[in-house]
Amino acid sequence: MSTEQRHLLVIGIGAGDPDHLTLGAVRAIRRADVFFLIGKGPVKASLTDFRRAVIEEHSDRPHRIVETEDPPRDRAAAGRGAYTAAVHDWRSKRADACEQLIRDELAPGQAGAFLVWGDPALYDGTLGMLDEIAARGTVAFDVEVVPGISSVSALAARHRIGLNQVGRPVHITPARRLPEIFPGQEGGVDSDVVVMLDAHESFTQVEGDGVWIYWGAYLGTPDEILVAGPLADVADRIREVRAQARARHGWIMDTYLLRRTRP
């Protein structure tokens, strides 16, 4: 490793089960001198606590943990353009905070690590944030990515299903785009759809017979909840258990697969 340049490890740590850590992730954790944590406030403290527990269990060398609070995000922005602008603004503010941490807390020649929920390549902004920081040219570093078990993989494993059916594609989408790619009418897109980041229970807007849902929340954690069945039969149950879980924990992370069965 160069004594001039900082080295950043972006490590996927799985969907919440300590056993989801790969051997590669453990080896990467043991290489890190500094761990960067982005706190999300007291309501989601369990996410930070899990990262701290992973570090303490697997790091076998002197290390430091430095933390910054996640900047607020405008969640009221409506429309695709406004939503995209709000996300870019939030990520730039996060980049500002992490740029300062990298510059001030990580010495040249040292390795710093971001522990990413799930897999860094799937619905996570860490890599994009680091690209933005690198483009600013204020601090030099290289990046190494260690893949992890995503919530999508965990969902399929817990329901004991394959993500794809023979000869059919799989589409992964945020919930706000679901009506575009999974129309309810017969003859719609012939694909299975994985939905993430669904704050508004968009599955309730899907119509048509022969649609199954495989739903999971807090996957891999002791609080895991699973529901599966014909969408028309289980949609109300999912809404009920989802509301109860959100009230109990103050937050929820859920993922689901919609599958149109063939006649």
Describe the structure.
With 263 residues, the protein is of the alpha/beta class. Helix content is 34%, strand content 23%. The chain contains seven helices and ten strands. The protein has helices spanning 23-29, 45-58, 80-105, 126-136, 151-159, 178-181, 231-249; strands at 6-12, 34-39, 64-69, 111-116, 141-146, 170-174, 192-196, 211-217, 225-230, 254-260. The strands form two sheets. A five-stranded parallel β-sheet has the order 3-2-4-1-5, with helices on both faces. Helix 3 (80-105) crosses helix 4 (126-136). The model has no long low-confidence stretch (mean pLDDT 89).
- Give the mean pLDDT: 89
Q: What is the strand arrangement across the widest sheet?
A: 3-2-4-1-5
Radius of gyration: 20 Å
**Helical element count?**
7
The helix-strand sequence is EHEHEHEHEHEHEEEHE
Identify low-pLDDT runs.
none
**Biggest sheet overview:** 5 strands, parallel
Number of strands: 10
What is the CA–CA distance across the termini?
A: 58 Å
Shape: globular
Report the portion of residues in β strands. Answer: 15-25%
**Percentage of residues assigned to helices:** 25-40%
Structural class: alpha/beta
Jot down its keywords.
263 residues, alpha/beta, five-stranded parallel sheet, 7 helices, globular
Protein topology:
Elements: E1 6-12, H1 23-29, E2 34-39, H2 45-58, E3 64-69, H3 80-105, E4 111-116, H4 126-136, E5 141-146, H5 151-159, E6 170-174, H6 178-181, E7 192-196, E8 211-217, E9 225-230, H7 231-249, E10 254-260
Helix pairs in contact: 3-4
